[in-house]
Write a structure and sequence with these properties.
about 475 residues, four-stranded mixed sheet, UDP-n-acetylglucosamine1-carboxyvinyl-transferase, Chain, single chain, disordered C terminus, disordered N terminus
């Protein structure tokens, strides 16, 4: 790493306001740059962070190791210094003010870069009117993440329980494998729509709600394509959550594997709004899906920022993707990418062929960038035992007596090694040779002569074992 790169990572960025709160914290974690966010709702009657924002900070603290988060007394200022992406088995109770997708969506690009595989359990609201539902994450966001992983084994999103607002009660399990580096993406042809799939769910309500929504949605979609199939998901008991609700999610799939999704959800129970009608929700979801198809592109509007972030984190190779009109959220995301990573995207209009003249839809944008080569580094540890056990990883070492366990500091690494009392040399390290300074006495007038001393790997640690660090 050059000195300019080191100065760029250590410089603190400063923002004002509560908008794009998750973007700033996630990009700070990936770029290892501290960030300060001030004047958070400072002019409102109830200033400071909301409950769902504080819950997201706690979740980010669980997935990292060594992060430093400071919040002032009024909650109007947050200072965040990111630590190492650790991962592991994490359980988190999300705030019912926002959906589980509010917490899961920013963790999708963090999962592949964790130190150990991520196994995340989130509890709360699975479907609401503010955030994309967990069904859209499963149908649209997960296929995008699979395109950047060389092998998608271990990438799972399972909905154990559904939960509607205001009480929630849903449960979602997300597991993500580790990847040293993402792959470059060339995704410029979305293809034609070949089928439409969906799911209609009802929680603690009559099962006829699902059929009414399906009939209304099919009444619109069958005018354009005959292959329309929508599943029903009527749950009762603990799997239905704590509040009644219903909704429908629709996904259009193209011949090239592009997924475009839209949804409609009923009003929460006890809300001052008029109770939702099932037929209206089915029609709204179908019209929203047609709007996404009209906008076009290789991803829908809710996942534009995800594909751009994964492209920027990829190898130092050219990646391209074709998008529809950029949403305001994506436009601000591009500004943040320049601040944190220095990555600038080249935007140009789509070059149409003769066949494309017959197609209708909005103008498409071809996004091109060169990745920042974000990767998980793996180094082979070198061990040497003398009067004190020393286990060195890069520039960090932990020294303990022969009788104690070798427990590293929290900022070094996460594993605990128990060295044998009488180790047997069975393999030498050629890459790195520690030096023995000879005598440790302070009375020696002659300077100690450094003599190379062979380090070894004991039988319980093979040279092929690698420990991932950042």
């Amino acid at each position: 790493m050059s000195r300019s790169d080191s100065n760029q990572q250590s410089s603190r960025l400063r923002y004002e306001g509560c908008n794009f709160f998750r973007q700033r914290l996630v990009l700070a974690t990936l770029s290892c740059r501290p960030v300060s966010i001030v004047n958070i709702r400072s002019k409102e009657n109830d200033p400071g962070l909301r409950e769902f924002e504080a819950s997201f900070i706690r979740l980010l603290d669980k997935i990292t190791n060594g992060s430093k988060i400071e919040v002032n007394e009024t909650g109007t200022a947050v200072h965040y210094e990111p630590g190492l992406l650790y991962g592991g088995t994490i359980e988190h109770d999300c705030s019912t003010q926002r959906s589980i997708s509010y917490y899961l969506e920013p963790l999708l690009p963090l999962g592949p870069f964790c130190k150990i595989p991520l196994h995340l359990t989130l509890r709360g609201v699975t479907n609401d009117q503010t955030d994309p539902s967990i069904d859209i994450i499963r149908c649209s966001s997960m296929p995008i993440l699979k395109r950047f992983l060389l092998v998608d084994d271990g990438l799972v999103l399972k909905i154990n329980k559904r939960g509607a607002p205001p009480k929630g009660g849903g449960e979602v399990i997300f597991t993500c494998p580790l990847r040293k580096q993402l792959r470059a993406l060339q995704y410029v042809d979305p293809g034609k729509i070949k089928k439409i799939r969906g799911v209609s769910y009802a929680l603690r309500t009559s099962p006829t709600m699902t059929n009414r929504m399906i009939e209304a949605a099919k009444g619109i979609l069958l005018k354009y394509i005959p292959d329309v199939f929508i599943l029903t998901d009527h749950r009762k008991g603990p799997a239905s959550g704590l509040s009644p609700g219903f909704g429908i999610t629709l996904t259009a799939e193209t011949i090239n594997g592009t997924f475009l999704s839209a949804e409609a959800t009923s009003n929460p129970q006890g809300d001052k709004q008029v109770p939702s009608v099932a037929e209206e929700l089915g029609e709204i979801a179908a019209l929203r899906l047609l709007e996404e198809i009209y906008r076009g592109g290789c991803v829908d509007s809710s996942n534009q920022h995800l594909v751009l972030l994964l492209m920027a984190l990829g190898p130092k190779d050219v990646s391209r993707v074709l998008l529809g009109p950029l949403s305001p959220y994506t436009i601000q995301f591009l500004r943040h990418m320049k601040d944190f990573f220095g990555t600038v995207f080249k935007m140009e209009n789509e070059i149409k062929n003769d066949e494309d003249e017959l197609r209708v839809g909005t103008e498409k944008i071809l996004m091109t960038c060169v990745g920042a080569a974000k990767e998980r580094r793996s180094i082979t540890p070198s061990l040497s035992f003398s009067q004190q056990h020393s286990l060195t990883f890069g520039s960090n070492s932990s020294y303990l007596s022969n009788d104690s366990l070798l427990k590293p500091r929290q900022s070094d690494f996460s594993r605990t090694f128990i060295p044998p009392p009488n180790p047997v040399i069975n393999r030498f390290v050629e890459e790195q040779e520690p030096y023995d300074t000879g005598s440790d006495s302070e009375n020696d007038s002659a300077p100690a002569k450094k003599t190379p001393k062979k380090s070894w790997f004991p039988s319980w640690l093979k040279k092929s074992d690698q420990i991932s660090v950042f």
